[in-house]
Amino acid sequence: MGISKLKIANGETKWQVRVWENGRGSRRINRRFDRRTDAEAFLLEFESKLEEERKSPFKGCSFENRFFRDEAVNWLKDGELRFSASHLVRVKGVLNEVLPRFGDLTMDKFTPEFLAKYQQEEKARGLENASVNRKTEVFTTILNFSVKQRRIPFNPANGFRKLKKSTTEMDFWDQDEAADFLTFANRIYPKDSEDRWVYVVYLLALNTAMRAGEIWGLRPSDLSRDGRSIQVRRQFNRVTLAMAPTKSKKSRLAPLNDELREELECLIQTKSINPDETVFMNELRKPVCHENFVKRQFLVDVKAWGGRSIRFHDLRHSATTMMIASGIDLKTVKEICGHADIATTMTYVHLISGAVERVAEIFAVTPIVSKRD
User: Fold this and answer.
1) pLDDT tens across the length of the chain (373 residues)
2) 262 and 159: one domain?
3) Which DSSP category does 176 fall into?
4) pTM of the model as a whole
5) Residue 366 domain-assigned?
6) Rounded distance, CA 97 to CA 91, Å?
């Protein structure tokens, strides 16, 4: 930033001012003046304007001509450098759905009242609270990003509240239901069956609380040498079709009981699975596609079984609640499940309140009363 003296072709003298519009890396402004005093006046005015913007950075911002479509595209370009592949796919899906409806609205229209109405519409379509929240988070995140970029003066959705997560969204089978389903699966996928691996998947999910991606990423080398645990090291990302770290970015141990160990070892031996291959794989010896498994096996099997229908992910919830109900301490359950915070593990406690109440009926620690008392 400064003034320089120039000699042009016809011998005249000019005074040039070269400045950055908004700091280095922004658009550069070049101005030429016949007199130095004019150049100095321009520079003084420009510096005064910059100082004013530093004191009030949002003064030049407005909602005028700030359309949701443009702000969403701007946010998505930044997100392509920061989001995981699976998250990028999810937000693109949401934007493909909402941009035709809301893309031409200016950003000031996205008030708490507007988003609350959108919540009601999505709930009326039968979506669960968690699904609605994931959609509204896209709106609020774009608004916050535009504020940080100083493209709009403030977030018009301030005060908007997400829906509470319903306990019914975290469904689970109790131990009797889980055992009955495994009995059914054991019958339709007997030990000599080519599809015995399907039963092993159910057995693994209900005994370890592993996530679906972690199940599909399991390798023979993950079974401990002592045969008592599984090292959960990775998950198969169904979007990128590649292995990725676990959700917590850390490996952990999951329990391996005798029946599960025997089933896994038998499957590995029967299928001649190499240490670097996945235990569960398709005809091309590639990891199982989760969507195909749920559609072609799990949903079909649950319907044929005739019991209460839950999602495949709810097998993890079922395993977690059964561990807690059986008396395993919360810290151990937290480590087995790979929860980042004990508060997440605590959310399962209210799901088994009935079991806890039954414990209260048969278990009590009371002071010893001596005969002298």
Assistant:
1) 578 888 877 778 888 888 877 666 567 788 888 888 888 888 888 888 777 666 655 565 788 889 999 999 999 999 888 887 778 888 999 999 999 999 999 999 999 999 999 999 999 988 888 889 999 999 999 999 999 888 898 999 999 999 986 655 678 998 889 999 999 999 999 999 999 999 999 999 999 999 999 999 999 999 998 889 999 999 999 878 899 999 889 999 999 999 999 999 999 999 999 999 999 999 999 999 999 999 999 999 999 999 999 999 999 999 999 999 888 999 999 999 999 999 889 888 876 755 545 545 545 555 665 555 5
2) no
3) H
4) 0.61
5) no
6) 10
Which residue range(s) make up the domain with 49? 2-55
Residue 230, beta-bridge partner list: 223, 254
Strands (E), the chain: 2-7, 13-20, 28-33, 229-232, 234-237, 242-245, 252-255
User: Based on the domain organization, do 82 and 143 belong to the same domain?
Assistant: yes
Measured in whole angstroms, how far is the alpha carbon of residue 218 from the centre of its chain? 21
Q: Do 205 and 281 lie in a common domain? A: yes
How far apart (Å, rounded) are the C-alpha atoms in residues 148 and 146? 5
The whole-angstrom separation of Cα 163 and Cα 120 is: 10
75 and 110 together in one domain: yes
